[in-house]
UniProtKB/TrEMBL annotation:
This is C1q domain-containing protein. It holds the Pfam family C1q. Its main location: secreted. Residues 61-197 form the C1q domain. The keyword Membrane does not apply. SUPFAM superfamilies: TNF-like. SMART domains: C1Q (SM00110). It is found in: Secreted. Keywords: Secreted, Signal. Residues 1-19 form the signal peptide. One of its GO terms (cellular component) is extracellular region.
């Protein structure tokens, strides 16, 4: 679009120069003036094309920013130190629903958030791990008659390229119950890069 505007301006300028040249001299002088004007116009168009190409080359290219959102489909009972294998991916990339692990494609500051759903008389304790280092924990222990309940934990942390990130149960409860309430209110896990390092 920009190149079309520059060409249009060039044609108007060329027309003005040609009109002025034709009114001031012999045919030979007019032809010489026309050739000089045309050469000047071609040079200017080439310069504008070079400038536009340089601008496009220097413009930052938009990278795909790592992100994901996954949910756990169905009721799940996990032992201690078990990875939560979120099996339904809605958006994003770099999350493996087979093993429940996100692999960071670039280094940066990431925001991770996970929600745990459970119900009366059940307990769940989970933790966010980055290359097997605990970055955050979440505990939910419900009494009888509490009904279905969900809690969310957010963690902001630095992750290096190639680091593995996952949610797992910790070593306190042997029966961690994650509930799929009425077939739609589910435990979930999401992550996105906030700033590239």
């Amino acid at each position: 679009m920009s190149l079309q505007i520059f060409l249009y301006i060039g044609v108007i300028f060329f027309h003005r120069v040609v009109t002025k040249s034709i009114s001031n001299g012999t045919i030979e002088n007019r032809t010489d003036a026309l050739e000089r004007s045309f050469d000047s116009l071609v040079l200017r168009i080439n310069n504008m094309s070079d400038i536009l190409n340089n601008i496009q080359t220097k413009a930052p290219t938009e990278k795909k920013r790592p992100h994901f959102y996954v949910e756990l489909n169905g009721n799940t009972h996990l032992q201690m130190n078990s990875i939560v294998k979120f099996d339904t991916q809605f958006i994003g990339n770099n999350f493996n629903t087979g093993d429940g692990i996100f692999i960071a494609p670039i280094s940066g500051v990431y925001l991770f958030s996970w929600t745990v759903q459970t119900y009366s008389s059940k307990s769940v304790q989970t933790e966010l791990r980055v290359d097997n280092i605990v970055k955050g924990k979440q505990l939910m222990a419900l009494g009888s008659g509490a009904g279905s309940f969900g809690t969310t934990r957010n963690v902001l942390c630095t992750v290096n390229k190639g680091d593995h990130v996952w949610i797992q149960t910790d070593n306190h409860y042997s029966d961690n119950t994650l509930d799929d309430v009425h077939g739609g209110v589910r435990s979930s896990f999401m992550g996105l890069i906030i700033q590239e390092l």
